[in-house]
Every structure is written in C-alpha cells, then in structure tokens.
Design brief:
The complex is a heterodimer of chains A (157) and B (297). With 157 residues, chain A is α+β, with helices and mostly antiparallel strands. Chain A is 34% helix and 17% strand. Chain B is of the alpha+beta class and 297 residues long. Chain B folds into two domains: 143 residues, Uridine Diphospho-n-acetylenolpyruvylglucosamine Reductase, domain 3 (2-Layer Sandwich); 119 residues, CO dehydrogenase flavoprotein, C-terminal domain (Enolase-like, domain 1), CATH 3.30.390.50. Chain B has eleven helices and 14 strands. In chain B, the strands form four sheets. In chain B, strands 4-5-10-6-7 form a five-stranded antiparallel β-sheet. A four-stranded antiparallel β-sheet of chain B has the order 11-12-13-14. In chain B, strands 1-3-2 form a three-stranded parallel β-sheet, covered by helices on one side. Chain B is globular and about 55 Å long. The chains are: A alpha+beta (157), B alpha+beta (297). Chains A and B meet through strand 4, helix 3 and helix 4 of A and strand 1, helix 2 and helix 5 of B.
Amino acid sequence: MSEQIHLHVNGVDYPVTIAQERNLLSVIRGEIGLTGTKEGCDDCECGACMVLLDGQPVNSCSYLAVQAQDREITTVEGLADGQALGMLQRNLLEAGGVQCGFCTPGMLISATALLARTPEPSEEQVRIGLSGNLCRCTGYTKIVQAVQRAATELTAG
Amino acid sequence: MSFTIARTVEDALAAMATGARPIAGGTDLVVGARHGKAPLPSALVAIDRLRELKSCERTADGVSIGALFTHHDIETHPLLTTVYAGLADGSALVGSPATRHVGTIGGNIMNASPAMDTGAPLAVMGAEVELRSLRGSRRVPIEQLWTGPGRTCAEPDELCVAVHIPAPGERANSAYLRLEYRRAMEIAVVGAAAFVALAEDGTIAALRVGLTAVSPTIFTGDLLGQVGRSVADAAAVAAELSSQQATPISDVRASDRYRRHTVGVMARRAVEAAARRAAGETIDIPVNRAIGIGAAS
C-alpha cells in the first residue's frame, strides 16, 4: 500500500508518496534525490547507509521510511557548512582519512553522533563509536586520527 | 502491507488484537525480511513512540525496565551497569552503536534467538517478562518464555511491555561474556552468564549459569552443589558442566566440538567475573573488553 508521508531531512520538509515497505535509504536516494548516503551491503553490516534519526545513528537500509516520518533526519549533506565542508569533513580530508570515499558519509554520521555525546573521546571510544562502519581502504588509523583532531578542535572552541 | 503508528499502548494492543505485529527498532524484523528469512508481516504497528515503555525504574524488589529501553540506554544506565552488570555486559556487545540506539530489550527477548546477548544474563538474574493484551496482563519467568529458536509462549495479541529483575541482594552480582571473532556487528559464537552470591567468608552462597548459542533456547542451570565451595572450585565445575550439557550445532561460525569446548571457558570466566563483582570490585562494561576477548584494536 502506498502512503503520502512527510520526511524532514536536513531541516527541509519533503512530502513523498511511497510503498510502506520501502526502506529509508531508497527513499532518501531515489525520491528525495540526496545521494550522499550510500548503499553498501544492504544488510545492516557495513554502515555506509548511516543517517541520524533525531540525532542517533541508524542504518537506513534496514529502517522503514514510514517509521521515520515526522522525525529529524540528518544525512551527510546536512553536515556541510553551507557550500563549505563541515569541520569533521575537513579534518577527515586533511588527515588522509578518505580514499575511495564510499564509507565516508557513514563514518561522518557515526563520528558526529559520537562527538555529540562524547566531546573528548579516547582512541578506544572513537574505535567503538565507528565500529559499525566498514572501510576497506584506509585501515582506519587515519579516520580515527581525524576524529580525534576534530574533537580537539571542537573542545578548543 | 499495512502500517500504523501507535500513540498509546492501548492503540498497539488493539492493532495486535486484529493481527498486527509490533515493530520498534526493526533491527531483527526488517533485516530478517531483507534476508528472506521471513517476509515482513502483512500488518505492522510501530510502537517506538510509546514513552511509557521507555522507562527504567527501581521497584520494591528490584528494577522494571520498559520494553523500549534500548541497548544503548542499558549500557549507559547508572543502576543497570552496576547492580545488574551482566545485562549491561550483554547489551554493550550487541551490533554497533547504530544497532544499540534503536534495538530494544523487548525486541531482543521476543525475537528469541538462542544467540541473543541479553537472554542469558536476564535468565540467571531470575527476570520475569510482562506480557499485555486487551485481555489482560501476565508475568512469565523469562526461561519459560522461550519455547524454541525464534519462538515464545506469547500469544499473537500479547505485547511485551516490561522486564522485571529482582534485586541481587548483598554480595551478589552477575556477568556475561561471549566468544566473538570481531568486535562489532558480531553474533555470539557461544556465550555464558553467571549470577554469583557470596557468603561472608567469600565462598559461594548461590550460583546460576546461563549459556548462549549452545541449545535451541538459552540454557540455564542452578549449581546448588557448589554452595559453600570456593569460587575457583565452583568456576571449574561450572566450566565442566557447561561443556557437558551444551548441545550445540555446527554452522558457518563454529563446529559443535569447538562450541562445546569454548562454552566451558566462557562459563568459567563468567563465574569468576561475577564473583569479583559480587566481592565489590568494579569491572568495566562489557567484561569482554575488560578481560580482552576479541581482537585487540
């Protein structure tokens, strides 16, 4: 059955008419047209599809879009600072934490959620915070360093 | 498929009375459907906005945890991470931060996987599950809830609304740990929980062990014969009995022989960790990380 629902993505209200079994990822990419969020494993394992739902990280490949109605959804596009890169994005780039870039949107979402609840994370806390995101290029070290650099920048104000 | 959002518990119960299945985080239901394990139910009622099921409160005889309390809520809750530490050990191991933020204790219990991480600790602590329908409410000892892999004794119109855990009492606590090959998005290869109460002289006053992923449902047993013995002796006996009584399967993650051996190791470590906590020591949540199970970072 199709239904018209409202999804609030990055502060914008999007009315969409969708089948009720559609997952949030396919609606964000296919209906709303925000393609920063990636489809990786499509099985809730890799984290490439991660978005924030009311500030909490969620694998959007395995979350029903109808369940997200009237909630605040943040995708990687919402982390930018206008047309410029957001602070975390810039740190990830400068630290060499981006290679092929496919995991990057999910990494940024996880890191954003982590820093919101733990502003000064230890290396172990960063690794746990990013533990739902697979990267097959970097070996993770530079991604972890980038998040720590961002944390330092944030707390220094 | 039809989908509705419940605004009250009564809404949810009314929908379930007409055949709808409840969905909270969807981490089992939606993922299972996408795997082809089971299609999505033809009618779903979303219960994740029911505030009254998100509480965790002390009661006269213990604690009551609302069915929508998430694994993240549990692993960061001041009371649950200290007095009911075995449960927090389990929740802290579930999936990834994303899974733990939407996955609920009610969903974990009612999904009835033999590999669930909250089942063994809840069972050794003597938890009861509160099931509610339009017909009324009842409490079921958690071990009686599970009737097989993916099956419970709940009627189709019954919603799990809360889990009640009795207070452990003086000099008593719990621990849960599991064998895992990686540190995230993992399912227990095998796991073990222990509840230990110590006598004043440090010997065992009560010992209960629960095993994960070695039988069709969570396996639990009271080790009554260990009362009065030392923790080390009791832990060794728990290891031996656990390996003997396990009836594991072989699958892609481990052979039955390997599971039978390692569940004994997990049981021994669970008894030791629970006893250290019962004696007043603080071991970080989850015990798995504190004692170095899983690959080093």
